[in-house]
Write a structure and sequence with these properties.
By secondary structure, this protein is mostly helical. 75% of the residues lie in helices and 0% in strands. It is built from four helices and no strands. Helix 1 crosses helix 3 and helix 2 crosses helix 4.
Amino acid sequence: MSYNIYYSRLSAIKSAIAFTWISDLFSGVNGYMDDIAINQVSNYEEELIEYLAANKSQMMESVSTSGKIEDNTETELKGAIVDFNKTFVKES
């Protein structure tokens, strides 16, 4: 495997990890996970990332690249999380 391919894959993995961390913190700190049971948090986080990857990939790339959430991105992320929360099935 060439160095460029390795670096490209490593960069993509780092970006995905960064976005996962940022979106998890954003969701928790801003109250979007308040009604999620503790035993469901990891499932919620996993499904949220899948949802965002499928529906907001450009936003994910923007946040992953910059490492921060700009004002316009924050609005988009809030809307996406609200939409996702409507579809997330909570255990009783």
